[in-house]
From TrEMBL:
CDD domains: GlpA-like_Fer2_BFD-like (cd19946). Residues 4-355 form the FAD dependent oxidoreductase domain. PANTHER family: GLYCEROL 3-PHOSPHATE OXIDASE, GLYCEROL-3-PHOSPHATE DEHYDROGENASE. It comes from the Bacteria. Residues 399-453 form the BFD-like [2Fe-2S]-binding domain. This is NAD(P)/FAD-dependent oxidoreductase.
Length: 487
């Protein structure tokens, strides 16, 4: 198949590039090895839209972070995903460290971050009553925010798809070759693709693809971050995102509310070798707990409902590698996209799409659809809105996930929409069915029934998250209606 641009990877970066490219009159494809978008690092992070005071002035990280953070609010309205400007705080526990806090403020100002302020005295606990009384000063960044990383990525991808980008899921890229006549051949485990331009947004694997075509070798080390996610009962423990002073390994363990009302605590930062190493460990979670207690001794860790880990794509030079490879015309990298990659994604999308469009001398389309509507959210709707939804479709009155109040109507919508859910996790990321306190113990079988019915699938073929994750092992008996019961 022939394309103008092929994007490798449908994380938040690949999806943002796809959406921006879909503004142009170009034939674009996204190749993703997983069964859905947002299955890599984009699904396992702190979900913070950083204000932009951490990155070195002049770096790509600084430039993209500040621009991305400024774009996020308008984008959340355009594409209908949850985002909240809750503000962030960096705590300082020793008078001797106050110069470090001041240096962060100066760096933020150089980067163009607005409203930074150092807070001391009584105001500290007025801002955040539950934090430690050892806090001597803090840096307040009113433009820091939180976002739903799944909904952000899915919204970008859906909108790209509606605007004509082809997504090939379950398609693993095996090799990228430069063609003598110009352009590239991309070999996958399914078909071969020919393309004038490649956008390499393969997360922790971006070095592998860059090194196939460029002499400027990249080296990405996965840096693991482990987390505890706490019940919604703990969601009000803090209202801002609470950081400690950063170290050379990153921004450290934070405590933050999520846009959905949970409390998130983490991450650790450990360099590992395995690019698939997303298991949590007792040691890592122990470290999360002890470091979080430094910020707030009473952080309610007994309310943990799940734990998870994500991998930062740390490149040896520790900046984003963005743009056309010097020795590979038409090959654009989005490599080394560790934190603040989520915050930066809208800006990276814009930047790389402009570069690729310029290379291809592409023109903007007139019929670009810039908006998208999310699935109705019954849990947050008013009684009148719920009545209206049920009037149109009674399935919006049938609650499937009790913990998160997700209805059959929402699940059907998640399956039927563009780039719809095909697995239990796909439904979970789009609707939150399964994200509650019981972690899908109650709702999974009911969601599976809907998936099987909607997709005309044998229930034995249903998966949690694609290849290698079948949910049922066999039939135990047929019930009186002739329907087989499985386990
Ligand atoms: C612990 C942690 C905390 C973080 N917290 C934040 C935060 O709070 N704020 C922030 O701004 N940033 C944060 N980040 C960074 C942010 O999550 C990442 O920068 C961002 O998600 C990277 O997106 P991506 O699309 O580049 O990578 P990914 O989401 O990993 O996407 C890459 C995609 O490429 C696919 N792929 C790989 N190989 C192939 C292949 N051979 N063929 C086809 N497809 C392939 C993968 O399946 C994947 O879907 C954090 C990261 C971590 C690990
Ligand atoms: O630890 P860092 O610096 O990679 O940052 C990760 C998140 O952005 C904040 O937890
Ligand atoms: S019922 Fe769905 S998570 Fe508990």
């Amino acid at each position: 198949m022939k394309y103008d641009v092929v994007i490798i990877g449908a994380g938040v970066v690949g999806s943002a590039v796809a959406r921006e490219l879909s503004r142009y009159d170009l034939k674009t494809a996204v190749l993703e090895r997983e069964e859905d978008v947002c299955c890599g690092t984009s699904k396992a992070n702190s979900a913070i839209v950083h204000a932009g005071f951490d990155a070195e002035p002049g770096s790509m990280k600084a430039r993209m972070n500040v621009r991305g953070s400024k774009m996020m609010e308008a984008l959340s309205k355009e594409l209908d995903f949850p985002y909240k400007k809750n503000g962030s705080l960096v705590l300082c526990f020793h008078e001797t460290d106050i110069p470090k806090l001041e240096a962060l403020k100066t760096r933020g100002e150089e980067n163009g971050v607005e409203g930074l302020r150092i807070v001391t005295g009584e105001e500290i606990h007025k801002l955040e009553p539950n934090i430690s009384h050892d806090v001597k000063a803090l840096l307040y960044a009113p433009t820091g925010g939180i976002v739903c990383p799944f909904k952000l990525t899915i919204a970008l991808a859906e909108n790209a798809s509606v605007n004509g980008v082809d997504f090939f899921l379950n398609t693993e890229v095996k090799a990228v070759r430069k063609l003598e006549k110009g352009g590239y051949e991309i070999e996958t485990d399914r078909e071969c693709y020919e393309t004038a331009c490649v956008v390499n947004a393969a997360g922790v694997y971006a070095d592998v693809f860059n090194n196939m075509v460029s002499g400027r070798k990249l080296s990405i080390t996965p840096r693991k971050g482990e987390y505890c996610l706490l019940d919604k009962k703990a969601g009000n423990f803090v209202s801002h995102t609470v950081f400690q002073l950063p170290t050379k390994m990153g921004k450290g363990v934070l405590i933050t509310p999520t846009v959905h009302g949970n409390l998130l605590v983490g991450p650790t930062a450990d360099d590992i070798e395995d690019k698939e190493g997303i298991q949590t460990t007792a040691r890592g979670l122990g470290k999360v707990a002890s470091l979080a207690r430094v910020s707030a001794a009473d952080v309610p860790l007994h309310m943990v409902i799940t734990s998870f880990a994500g991998l930062r794509a740390t490149e040896k030079d520790e900046d984003f590698v963005l743009g056309e490879a010097e020795d590979a015309e038409g090959f654009f990298n989005a490599a080394g996209i560790e934190s603040p990659g989520l915050s930066s994604a809208p800006a990276i999308g814009e930047y790389l799409a402009e570069l690729a469009a310029e290379r291809l001398q592409a023109k903007k389309k007139e019929n670009f659809i810039s908006t998208r509507e999310d699935i109705p959210n019954v849990a947050q709707a008013s009684p009148e809105e719920i009545a209206e939804l049920i009037k149109k479709d009674p399935a919006y009155g049938n609650v499937i996930c009790r913990c998160e109040t997700v209805t059959e109507g929402e699940i059907i919508n998640a399956i039927r929409r563009p780039l719809g859910a095909r697995s239990l996790d796909g439904v979970k990321r789009r609707t939150r069915a399964g994200m509650g306190r019981c972690q899908s113990g109650f709702c999974a079988p009911r969601t599976m029934e809907i998936l099987a019915r909607e997709l005309h699938m044998d229930p034995l073929e249903l998966t949690k998250a694609g290849k290698g994750s079948k949910l049922l092992t066999g039939v135990i008996k047929e019930n009186e209606t002739g329907i087989t019961e499985t386990f």
